[in-house]
Structures are given as C-alpha cells and as structure tokens.
Amino acid sequence: MDSWKRREREAMDASGEYLEALYENRYGLRHLYDRQAARLLTALRAVGIDQGRLRQMDLLEAAAGIGGVAVWLQPMAQRFFLSDISPYRTRVAHRRAESPAWVGDCEAMAVADEAFDLVLLLESLHHLGAPEAFVREALRVLRPGGWLAVFEGDPTGWNRRLFNLVKRTLGIQTEGTQHRYLLPPDIRGVLEPRFHIRLQKPIVGFFSPLSRIGWGGKRAWALMDVAEDLLQWVCPHTLRYWNIFLAQKPNLV
Known about the structure:
Elements: H1 3-25, H2 27-46, H3 51-54, E1 58-62, H4 70-73, E2 79-84, H5 87-97, E3 101-103, E4 116-122, H6 131-141, E5 142-153, H7 158-170, H8 184-191, E6 196-204, H9 208-212, H10 218-234, E7 240-248
Helix pairs in contact: 1-2, 1-5
C-alpha cells in the first residue's frame, strides 16, 4: 500500500470512531443513512429493480463506511457483501449489517470476475485517487447486464456551496481526509466509456448538514423530510446536494 493510501486508511479509522459514536448516540446521523437508503431504493425502482428483483441479486457495497446504509440493504439482497479501506469501519459495518466484509481498496478489488449483480459506491467517489480505476474494477466484478450505483455529492448545488462556505468560515472539519468532488459531467465522463447510464437524478439535501453533526430528533426530522420532499418536487436542480447515477454494464451474453 502506497503512502497516500496508508494516510487515507488512518484518517478513515480516526473519523470512523467519531461517526460510530455519533451514529449510536444521536438520531440525526442515523436518519441521514435511512434517507439515503430510501432514495437509493426509489432510484433502483425507477430502472426496474424492485425488492423482488433485489432478492435475486448479489450486492457489493464498496467503501461501505460504518454500514449505515448496508444495514438497510442486507436483508433485501440474495447475498450482500461489503468492503472498506478502513479496518475500523469494516469491523463496525460487518457487525451492523451481519454480512461478509473485508478490508480492501475499491480501486483494486480482491474479488473474482463477474461475481455481483449490483455494486454500490455511496458518498465515496470523492475519496478515490483514481475514480477511473474503480469504474474499471466495477466493470470487471459485475456480471453482464449488472448495475453500478454511484451516490455522490454535487459541488455545484447552491445549498452545498453555502454549507462549504460556512464550514470554511467557521473552520469546521466534517471529513477526515482530503477529498475532491467531481462535477456531474465529469462523473458521466468516467462512467460512459464502459457503462450505459440509465438514470441521473439530483437529490435535494437541504437539511443534511444538520444530520452530519447529529442534530435533531424524530419529530424535527419528520418535519424536515416533508420540507425536503417539497423542495425535491419544486426545485431539485437548484438545491441538489447529491446526484444518483445508475449505470448498466453492457450485456454481452
């Protein structure tokens, strides 16, 4: 492992302990993962992957973090696997999702060819030094006709730009590593040479920064969910915080 990857792993271990404590003790972060899982499932249904079809699929979540989304998806899949570069996060995700897990680099996966039907990368593309390498690996480990789901922050959304300005002004550090968000056209450019993009959907996350610090209880988030759903309907592109990309491997069989 080169020095950059070693520093990344150490930073992810350190921030993973903080996230795990926040997840266990504050409702806001648990709610964020719940909403992400729900949004992902909605996007999958839009391309014909409902829960019945998920139960026939083998899934891999790369860079699974502390398993906040994995705990939702694991019961829905035929088989569910996860990996992360951080040993600490991998242990936590394995315990939470009760799924086979390994410490691994998603730019060089220790996985057999054509082993999965769906590969997930959720809010982690910006941590990769070589996104193209991950996409090549995803293509390799997916079966013909398999799917790649990328859920990634959008640096061009108005509310994300405002949040980043507040972070810089106040000196708030919410991630333990250096990161670089690709513009949506750049993500398409990474995916399209190898995959057919079937869906690109902007996702409003107007209140999501509050969940990152664990703020709010169930009643507060129920009200904020209603507001976000309304904003998603009225102005999804202006207030986008993430994008979901669903891309399909060509079926060569």
